[in-house]
Automatic annotation (TrEMBL):
Residues 128-336 form the ATP-grasp domain. InterPro entries: ATP-grasp, ATP_grasp_subdomain_1, Dala_Dala_lig_C. It comes from the Bacteria. GO terms for molecular function: ligase activity. PROSITE patterns: ATP_GRASP (PS50975). The keyword Transport does not apply. The lineage of its organism: Bacteria, Bacillati, Cyanobacteriota, Cyanophyceae, Nostocales. Gene3D superfamilies: 3.40.50.20, ATP-grasp fold, A domain, ATP-grasp fold, B domain. Keywords: ATP-binding, Ligase, Nucleotide-binding. This is D-alanine--D-alanine ligase.
Length: 342
């Protein structure tokens, strides 16, 4: 068997939060998928000062002991390594776009979606417009700049157009609450999207993976919400910082989220809509979408999260595992799609 040399692209060119988040997931992936007879893992670690490191592991000690180098030297190093493919694990917008485009220029294939698709998906309003044009239901919304005044009557959702993990998001119940919500959202982006609030029935995520060119819908993940006490998910539901400064996954305890029974009547309905989203956006290898299901059972598209770190706690990994697809098989499927093998 040929040993594949895989470069894990880790860190952030934007801020320490995304850098830590990327390291957290990538470290779990490296441990869980290690198979020396099959893979030779290399690590490229980018920090917000735009320096590159190639440490032997993602331990803080190994990172600190590795000399940082600029992009020019990093490109020279990478091109000398005979990398077979790249596994992108950066969550910041430059990481999802510019750094993937770099490997297009270097003609080194990578798992996951292309920079243009990632750029669209990172802008919630543009993503909504594309999937709506494909016939998917989306909440009515408007994009605001700082001088604009919202016209959607509360209740409404206010969120930055380009932040993840619910950063800057708020539920406005009265018109007098708009000023504070908009101020908070504009801290994270220069544009803010205001949407009609969809009454809560359920909130789910649906993952799509590609095998031999065929789209496969994975079991849904559902989140614990309550129409009165907790109508939306917020940042604290997704990531929390521990006392030692590390990040931990808040929604991975089978209490705040769980895998939906595949026989649930909503599963197939949501999977069909998710496949429409995948195709409309031009996704490849895998995709992931959030849906709000209203009390009448109608799914409404919320947003796309087009990344997977192939860590055990990655959402797509969890969904695949519940469908009987172990992590190493999931990774191999993505590698085969990336390299065009069957």
């Amino acid at each position: 068997m040929t040993v594949l040399r895989i470069l894990h692209l880790v860190g952030s060119a934007h801020n320490d939060f995304y850098c830590d988040l990327s390291r957290l997931y990538a470290q779990d992936c490296l441990v869980a998928t290690a198979a020396p007879s099959r893979y030779d893992f290399q690590i490229a670690y980018i920090t917000p000062d735009l320096q590159w490191r190639f440490p032997p592991s993602l331990s803080p000690e190994d990172i600190a002991d590795t000399k940082p180098i600029p992009l020019f030297d990093a490109i020279k190093f990478i091109t000398a390594q005979n990398i077979d493919l790249v596994l992108p694990q950066m969550f910041c917008i430059p990481g999802m776009t510019h750094y993937r485009a770099l490997f297009d220029l270097l003609k080194i294939p990578y798992i996951g979606n292309t920079p243009d698709i990632m750029a669209i998906a990172s802008h919630k309003a543009r993503t909504k417009a594309i999937v709506e044009a494909a016939g998917v239901k989306v909440p009515r919304g408007e994009v605001l700049l700082k001088a604009d005044i919202p016209t959607i009557r509360p209740p409404a959702i206010v969120k930055p157009v380009s932040s993840d993990n619910s950063l800057g998001m708020d539920l406005v119940k009265e018109a007098t609450d708009y000023d504070a919500a908009l101020k908070k959202a504009f801290e994270y982006a220069s544009e803010v999207i205001v949407e009609e609030f969809i009454e809560l029935g359920r909130e789910v995520r649906c993952g799509i993976i590609v095998k031999d060119g065929e789209l496969i819908g994975l079991p849904l993940e559902e989140y614990l919400l309550d129409p009165h006490s907790k109508p939306i998910r917020n940042h604290a539901d997704k990531l929390q910082q521990t006392d030692d400064g590390n990040l931990r996954f808040a929604a991975k305890d089978n209490i705040k989220s769980w895998i939906v029974d595949p026989n649930d009547p909503m599963t197939q309905k949501v999977q069909q809509v998710a496949k429409k989203c995948h195709q409309a956006l031009g996704c490849r290898h895998y995709s992931l979408f959030d849906f709000r299901i209203d009390p009448e059972g109608q799914p409404w598209f919320l947003e796309a999260g087009l990344y997977c770190s192939f860590a055990p706690k990655s959402v797509i990994s969890s969904m695949a595992a519940s469908a009987g697809i172990p992590l190493n098989e999931l990774l191999m499927m993505a590698i085969n799609e990336t390299l065009g093998m069957t």
